[in-house]
Design goal:
This protein is mainly alpha-helical. Helix content is 70%, strand content 3%. Helix 9 packs across helix 10.
Amino acid sequence: MDIFGIPIQAFLGQLLLGLVNGSFYAMLSLGLAVIFGLLGIVNFAHGALYMIGAYVAWLSLEKFGLNYWFALLLAPLVVGAMGVVIERTLLKRLYKLDPLYGLLLTFGLALIAEGIFRDQFGVSGQQYPVPDALAGATNLGFMVLPNYRAWVVFASLTVCLGTWFLIERTRLGAYLRAGTENPTLVQAFGVNVPVMVMLTYAVGAGLAALAGVLAAPVIQITPLMGSNLIIVVFAVVVIGGMGSILGSILTGLALGLIEGLTKVFYPEASSIVVFVIMAIVLMIRPAGLFGKEK
């Protein structure tokens, strides 16, 4: 059976690949949206944190024999702790300044991290094995579904929706949102706003690291893996609406699928389709699809 002259197996396989890429876009753009929406920081170091998360997984296996499941817990904690240090020592000094200063600082941090990892590990890339429990594939009849890629989609959706629920539907999320609008008032109710802001950045960094661990068995781990992806992720955030949690999740998944379909029908445009969509959206709705017009 063919779809527009393309075998259905090839079509569905490319659709699955697009969904996997969309899952990474959703997780990374979610972390960016959390940090920008709640702190007002354009975090250009997000790609570097994603890369560091993947390297933490690889190093924990190579040096200490810790498997993939430990890495899923360890990498977000390690990178989240790095986020605490970055926020307490550097970013907290920039909250009252123009957001451009935060962008420049985090861009510089990303370059420093890339340089350090290139010096230590080179640029050839490292392989991370698929965990035994998720090896192999399942035959669905109309296509063969790799078990690990199915896990990536499931884990990403679970984390993204759980984060959205925490921020938008719980009292803690209400405190976070209120703390960004009127920190003095929230502090009057006994909430330690500086600690809350610090933990928010740490959670955003941890989400990037978790995405890095999920990506490690799928792609080669290199110091440039974050910088190669972060521009696309920023485009996703802009299309969804800067600071919109749900917008980032839905837009990331949708653009991954669109990118996958473009590779089927017009491969030459697959590397620019996201940016073409961004340009169209910004002309029609400058605040993004889910952003709030000021």
